[in-house]
Specification:
The protein contains four helices and 17 strands. It is mainly β and 262 residues long. It has a single domain, classed as Double-stranded beta-helix (4-Layer Sandwich). Strands 9, 11, 12, 14, 15, 16 and 17 form a seven-stranded antiparallel beta sheet that branches. Strands 5-6-3-10-13-8 form a six-stranded antiparallel beta sheet, with no helix packed on it. The chain has a four-stranded antiparallel beta sheet with strand order 1-2-7-4, with no helix packed on it. The protein is globular and about 55 Å long. About 6% of the residues have low confidence.
Length: 262
């Protein structure tokens, strides 16, 4: 499997963009709806499949599309190709505040597993597959359930994470992580879910009922701000659709809303 060799530049700090430079006839694949801007001579087409196999039959495309639908991902991927005679650029943006992580699959034994909504774009030739975790603990309590995305190839892929990104290299050690803070990990990492301490800690500790346990040899990427946590805080702070609200600076704050009439 030989992926296109793409050049790139990551722009920005908290709301990052990755700008991909394409040679003539070079292609980059991306999730639907993440394109930010593109220069002249960039043509794009939505296709069923990642284009990693030139001889992929219709049945195989339908099966792969079905797996992506189960993961609540678009069954189509967008292919951006430079049809001009000189270098052109196309840019992709992360959908929420955080960082874009460039990953060279050739340095990770050709495989990385990531949360199903973390993948952004990749060089043509990368296989975007769905991995179903066989452990029931991971399936029921792992945040992403049985489903992770499996990226296979020898080129560059780009994934995004919320908040600050931490890269860990494990050499036989064990790392326990909040399930929502796990972004991606390499092939040599064993992923499981374990109870977060005793019963009192599970109920009153505020760290959730279960933690992801990672052990083995390889790379792990973590995020400081999972989108689910950000969304929960926004919902908690959002004003009601009707009725007066106590301002943010009020001493009463949320207590004042207890005395409001419906």
């Amino acid at each position: 499997m030989i992926c296109n060799e793409i050049d790139y530049e990551i722009i920005g700090n908290e709301m990052q963009i990755v700008e991909i430079e394409l040679d003539p006839n070079e292609t980059v694949i991306a999730e639907a709806g993440v394109m930010n801007y593109m220069e002249d001579d960039i043509a794009f087409e939505a296709k069923m499949g990642d284009g990693s196999s030139a001889n992929e039959g219709m049945l195989s495309k339908i099966i792969n599309a079905g797996k992506r639908a189960m993961a609540q991902e678009s069954v189509f991927m967008t292919h951006f190709t430079n049809i001009g005679n000189s270098k052109r650029r196309v840019a992709f943006a992360a959908p929420y505040p955080g960082k874009i992580i460039p990953v060279d699959l050739d340095k990770l034994n050709g495989v990385i597993y990531c949360q199903k909504d973390a993948f952004l774009c990749a060089a043509l030739g990368t296989k975007i597959d769905i991995a179903f975790n066989r452990r029931f603990g991971v399936g029921f309590f792992g945040g992403e359930g049985f489903i992770l995305e499996k990226l296979v190839g020898d080129g560059m892929v780009f994934i995004h994470a919320g908040g600050t990104v931490v890269k860990k290299e494990l050499h036989g050690e064990t790392l326990r992580v909040d399930t929502g803070c796990l972004v991606a990990f390499g092939e040599g990492i064993d992923y499981d879910i374990q109870r977060a301490g005793g019963l009192k800690s599970m109920i009153f500790g505020g760290e959730g009922l279960f933690l992801a346990t990672l052990r083995g040899e390889g790379t792990v990427y973590l995020q400081s701000l999972p989108f689910s946590r950000l969304a929960d805080r926004i919902i908690e702070s959002a004003p009601k659709l009707s009725g007066k609200q106590v301002g943010e600076g009020s001493v009463l704050g949320g207590l004042g809303r207890l005395f409001e009439s419906d």
